[in-house]
């Protein structure tokens, strides 16, 4: 009897372990197949948690003052609303508006100009940028190796206390891949558990007429690159993707952002020049014949793309354990 | 300074059976001198010193005729001339071969494979962080001129996407010995780079492509 019970518990544990990946990440039914290969690189809870610690820990920056979350706050759908441009060490201001981080598994390239080709190497850019974290990988690894907290967390995640740059980068990527926004009202309507109001329906019609080519549902972006007619900022002189590709055809092309979570992710555009959606629509009046009613209806529809469940998901928020690790402060 | 008196062996197809392990030694050369850190070498009326010489060598394969007979155990090696040991690649190989092929740089498929380790660890200073991609070859030198200010030459040659994929594929015919010495004669490359309007090439672009092809041509089998 006792042996049978033990066997039963073991089977249950194996079953739960097999089901674990579903709890970390799941494919929303109405989403396309992700670009990231989860079969090849499955998410693991210990790595995701380590990535979460690292994402929120300013230890990654030169003076231990700036974390990934400094510019990618969970309450802003992992964007940044205090400044038009990113804010780095020594109160430096960067060159671009920090983009919102969600649904990264569906993206083939990263940054406004697509400079980064894989999510696992994305965090190298902000860590080493002199106006962002201003650090180098070797020094980050030295700091992490001196931390008993991280020795333990890396051991749990990777089975050793080596703490290599590949482990560091993979862990951050694993956490970022869990940032899936698929629980807005729009998603509930698609799944048949909610309905649009009359104004939202009208807004959807406006959206379908003018916006969906570059911002198709359900991701609300092609994640391709486009010139939406913005005049270059005279101070920044940002030329967009051509800086990376050196191809004239890529001049002033920037990555099309998703229209999900716009309420949380202001300011808008690659240089954060618009603080309000009304200003964005005013810009698009130059391209499309939008009436006042069109704009009101469209704004109503865009509200249905705000994913409060995602923004306030406790699994993505600040892990208080790193306070204890860095400052000896207990919860 | 060790002056090389060497005879280039070009397109030699003779083969000798290796006894034990095989070593490939890469030897940087400038103006017939073997380049070593902290040394100054004559160049026209001026002199030059090298601060950094690093190269990625990938997918080393050995052929007998058209038949692949052996491959290096690691996909990529980072040669760093500040570390003399990295210039010597050891291979357990007892096969007979008459041709070696390898890549100068890191191929596109590898470059889009996320965070890598070993020789491809991005912390080794050969990965661009502001954009994805490895620096295939890093050459940093200073030209000291009597008539002008010193010139800093910085060549970070890389690029994995067309039209600026700067990866170079090389094939060298050889006489098989226990240690293959492959010279990298930088003389022409440095001359070309110094003739550029700007002496820094640090991103994938036409100049990087031209210089990468020139660098590939600098690899030659050295006489034993």
- Radius of gyration of chain A, whole Å: 22 Å
Number of β-strand runs of chain A? 2
What number of domains of chain B?
A: 1
Shape of chain B: globular
Estimated helix fraction of chain A: 40-55%
Overview of the molecule:
The complex is a heterodimer of chains A (331) and B (224). By secondary structure, chain A is an all-alpha fold. Chain A has 15 helices and two strands. Chain A has two domains: 153 residues, Cytochrome Bc1 Complex, Chain D, domain 2 (Orthogonal Bundle), CATH 1.10.760.10; 122 residues, Cytochrome Bc1 Complex, Chain D, domain 2, CATH 1.10.760.10. Chain A has a two-stranded antiparallel ribbon. The two termini of chain A are 43 Å apart. About 3% of the residues of chain A have low confidence. Chain B has 224 residues and is mainly beta. Chain B has one domain. In chain B, 11% of the residues lie in helices and 41% in strands. In chain B, the strands form two sheets. In chain B, strands 3, 4, 5, 6, 8, 9, 10, 11 and 13 form a nine-stranded mixed beta sheet that branches. Chain B is globular. Classes of the chains: A mainly alpha (331), B mainly beta (224). The interface between A and B is medium-sized, with 27 and 23 residues.
